[in-house]
Write a structure and sequence with these properties.
CATH superfamily of the largest domain in chain A: Jelly Rolls
Keywords (chains A, B): DNA-binding, Transcription, Transcription regulation
CATH class of the largest domain in chain A: Mainly Beta
Order of helices and strands of chain A: HEEEEEEEEHHHEHHEEH
Radius of gyration of chain A: 19 Å
Oligomer: homodimer
Strand content of chain A: 15-25%
Shape of chain A: globular
GO molecular function, one term (chains A, B): DNA binding
Number of strands of chain A: 11
GO cellular component, one term (chains A, B): cytosol
Protein name (chains A, B): Crp/Fnr family transcriptional regulator
CATH architecture of the largest domain in chain A: Sandwich
Helix content of chain A: 40-55%
Chain lengths: 214, 214
DNA sequence: CGCCCCGTTGAAGATGATCAAATCTTGTGG
DNA sequence: CCACAAGATTTGATCATCTTCAACGGGGCG
């Protein structure tokens, strides 16, 4: 795990004393927006989504997270979003109080957390650009390229671990528009869709060009 | 300034050795997206906007910043966004290398920076909800309430330091829609507009209700 | 005084949403 | 193994919100 990389054996032993592990099924709510923010989590295996809701049920997914990512940091007493597993997930759980004590012993951990949070913030700003200014086609193209890179860009084919509904709520669209847009990209030969949950990138350059609004 | 609060006299003297100050005019670009991220800035006075551009000129403002806020943190070598003054601004500039050395001496500073970044991230997630799922009316209502709170909610009247164009690029709308929506809120008696750059909140509860999608 | 920029207002148009239905997938039980 | 039910995805038709295009008004500054 990235979070504990670079620790000595002794430091690592200390590190392990503050963490708990958990394996959870798909579709489980790990915590809800507003719950007391007692833990910080890192993902060992699986995929997690974070989202916020409006009172009438409208939902915005703010991030899809994968192994190595962390979540659950909060300035105030409560979490700012809900976290839910999308697949079977293995988590490390760090109780907030213990973690803060550990920071004093291992300042490197705090630096890593700051770096990870800064990266999350940059991703959030990129997503604001997408939500505020990109067309449906640009949003879907961006989503596919970013996800492909995140899941390891060895092969052009990759699995979508999330439903159309999740994609729609991440991109600020409806499921119908996501479906139509994917069909359109397929029709134009930019991607292939072996089945509903797999995408094959066929013309990466053109896809990138669309994603950047060119 | 919040960043140096709680330091002893001696620590503060050390703190002052790493920072430079700058006064700048309105409309000045402090740095551009992609520039080498050499400095971290905090705002002493004035207002700053951060934004990202698409190649065809479409712009998304990701934040309006005010005294006490910081900006310029970056994981990679380059800034992730452009920063521009909206008013006359007084800044503190922290060279990145010196600041990192200072962190080892004053771990409290790093904790504060982590807290501030976490808060920025929460604000970004709230903005994603706005951009992805709120209507124009809800966006403008949210914007007014949040700005009013940020600028000090003593009096219901406050000045908008930014143009309609900036508001539009922050809310993912056009200037025409922003203008029409403000007119609509005024017509419905929720706000008053003494002039184009001043807003008076008249029915906060109703405005909050709209902002939350209720 | 007059120009220019900013903001407002109006009319027409387009993108994406909504409503509706068909198709495909998956899991269950006979 | 097959039939069936439930849910997810795709496709189609219509609709609404917001954008685009256009024109007008007003305040500030030369």
């Amino acid at each position: 795990m990235a979070f504990c990389a670079g620790l000595s054996t002794q430091q690592f032993r200390r590190f392990m004393t503050v963490l708990g592990q958990a394996s959870i099924d798909p579709g489980v709510t790990i915590f809800r927006e507003g719950d007391p923010a007692l833990n910080l989590y890192t993902i060992t295996a699986g995929a997690v989504k974070l989202y916020k809701l409006l009172s009438d049920g409208r939902r915005q997914i703010t991030a899809f997270l994968f192994p190595g990512d962390f979540f659950g940091l909060s300035v105030h007493e409560g979490y700012a979003y809900t976290a839910e597993s999308m697949t079977p997930v293995v988590l490390c759980r760090f109780p907030r109080r213990k973690l803060e004590a550990l920071f004093d012993e291992l300042p490197m951990l705090e630096k890593k957390l700051l770096g990870a949070t800064t990266q999350e913030l940059a991703a959030a700003q990129e997503q604001m650009l997408l939500l505020g200014r990109k067309t449906a086609r640009e949003r879907v193209a961006t989503f596919l390229v970013v996800l492909w890179r995140r899941l390891g860009d060895k092969t052009p084919v990759f699995a979508l671990p999330m439903s159309r509904s999740d994609i729609a709520d991440f991109l600020g669209l409806t499921i119908e528009t996501v479906s139509r847009t994917l069909t359109g990209l397929k029709r134009d030969g930019l991607i292939a869709l072996p089945d509903a949950n797999h995408v094959a990138i066929q013309r990466l350059d053109d896809l990138l060009c669309i994603a950047e609004g060119g």
